[in-house]
Specification:
This protein has about 300 residues and is α/β, with parallel strands linked by helices. About 40% of the residues lie in helices and about 15% in strands. It has a six-stranded parallel β-sheet. Strands 4-5-6 form a three-stranded parallel β-sheet, covered by helices on one side. A two-stranded antiparallel ribbon has the order 9-10. Helix 3 runs parallel beside helix 4 and helix 7 runs parallel beside helix 10.
Length: about 300
């Protein structure tokens, strides 16, 4: 195994920086990058539009000033509507071109429902026709990203078309697309992240690590609480403080030879700017300590 810190990256949403309008207080990139680097992490994900510069060369230079590189970028896109396919492929092409030029390793894509500014508070079941379109769309977006020399990973994500166990099973059976294993979104959707990693059988190419408050996740799944409200109340916990078998996921993936990034992604909603080194940075430091310890073990 390589040195644990060499494979740990961060996601801007761990510092409350999110693409959903009105999500909360948005910290500036310089503070986030400084705190990420201060934790000894080696890379960060791109974050939403406006967090880092638009010019991919300037993205690379900005990250280099903090001894960081770009791990990946996240893109929600509608795949189950053939009428919007051309627009989706244009977005994927633009994102892949930018990420590749900035030095990213892959594009992470979620099959959004078309919520737009509504975020991830709504769930829905696709028809058989829509599932066929989604699977076809996956092949097309993967080919589009590949033309820009960038691999693509599908991200099962709460509040999207691929959310619950039956959705994940359908992806595994009907497509060979690589996956981003997000322990938190899988858990909130009712999946066992360890079992998903086992069933994916070598298709995991990227990992987002969250721990989860199981009681809040149950209320979200039951429709008793909205997703954003649950995040505000602490749905996602520092690694080791929740109900996800983080150690089990690491053990399975390392045994299987996984060599990609482990991205710390503890979604938070900030009500105000925290003091330097407090809030997100303190929570992330606990997760780094926990994940480093179990990887070394």
């Amino acid at each position: 195994m390589s040195a644990p810190l060499a494979r740990l990256a961060a996601a801007p949403i761990t510092w409350g920086v999110c693409e959903v309008p009105g999500w909360g207080w948005q910290l500036g990139s310089e503070r986030v990058l400084r705190e990420v680097s201060g934790l000894g992490l080696r890379a960060i994900e791109l974050g939403p539009s406006g967090f880092l510069p638009d010019d991919p060369r300037e993205v690379a230079r900005t990250l280099q000033r903090h001894d960081l590189r770009l791990a990946s970028g996240f893109l929600p896109a509608v795949l189950h509507r053939p009428a919007s396919r051309a627009a989706t492929l244009d977005r994927v092409a633009a994102a892949a071109e930018t990420l590749a030029a900035a030095g990213a390793d892959l594009l992470v894509l979620a099959a959004e429902l078309g919520n737009g500014a509504a975020g991830y508070d709504r769930s829905a079941e696709l028809s058989e026709q829509q599932w066929t379109a989604l699977l076809e769309g996956l092949d097309e977006v993967r080919e589009t990203a590949a033309r820009h020399r960038l691999p693509l990973a599908l991200h099962p994500h709460y509040g999207t078309a691929v959310e619950r166990p039956e959705h994940v099973e359908r992806i595994l059976a009907g497509s060979d697309v690589p996956l981003c294993l997000d322990t938190g979104h899988l858990f909130v959707g009712g999946n066992d992240p360890v079992e998903v990693a086992r069933a994916a059988n070598g298709r995991i190419v990227h990992v987002h690590f969250k721990d989860v408050d199981g009681a809040l996740a149950t209320r979200v799944r039951a429709g008793e609480m909205g997703y954003r409200d649950a995040v505000t109340r602490g749905l996602y916990r520092p690694l080791g403080d929740g109900d996800v078998d983080v150690a089990g996921v690491v053990s399975l993936l390392e045994t299987a030879g996984y060599g990609g990034w482990y991205v710390l992604e503890q979604d938070v909603v900030l009500e105000a700017e925290p003091a330097a080194g407090d809030g997100p940075a303190a929570s992330a430091a606990r997760s780094v300590h926990y994940l480093t310890r179990i990887m070394q073990a």
